[in-house]
Amino acid sequence: MSVAKITEISSTSKKSFDDAIKEGIKRAHETLKGIKGAWVNEMKVDVKDGEISEYRVNLRVTFVLKD
Fold first, then answer.
1. Where are the beta strands (DSSP E) in the chain?
2. Of 25, 21, 1, nearest to 12 (Cα)?
3. Distance between terminal CA atoms of the chain?
4. Cα 28 to Cα 20: distance, rounded to the nearest angstrom
């Protein structure tokens, strides 16, 4: 039997939503061990001078707690 916890993080990228997700998971992995999955809770873009300047995602990351 295992017990999991869910934590919410925010990640940004100047490239794409996909890159923001990958960078968020990569960074979460440095702190959280036992990550089993994540889902995108929210997607947002920042706009400057009529162009997308930054892609932002809020992720809910699931990880298993150690015994």
1. 4-13, 35-48, 51-64
2. 21
3. 10
4. 12
Predicted structure pTM score: 0.87
Mean pLDDT by 10 residues, the chain (67 residues): 92 98 97 95 97 98 90
Question: Which residues have CB under 8 Å from 7's CB, separation 6+?
Answer: 28, 32, 60, 61, 63
- A 10 A CB-CB count for 25 gives 17
* Residue 50 DSSP code: T
21 vs 6: CA distance, rounded Å: 16
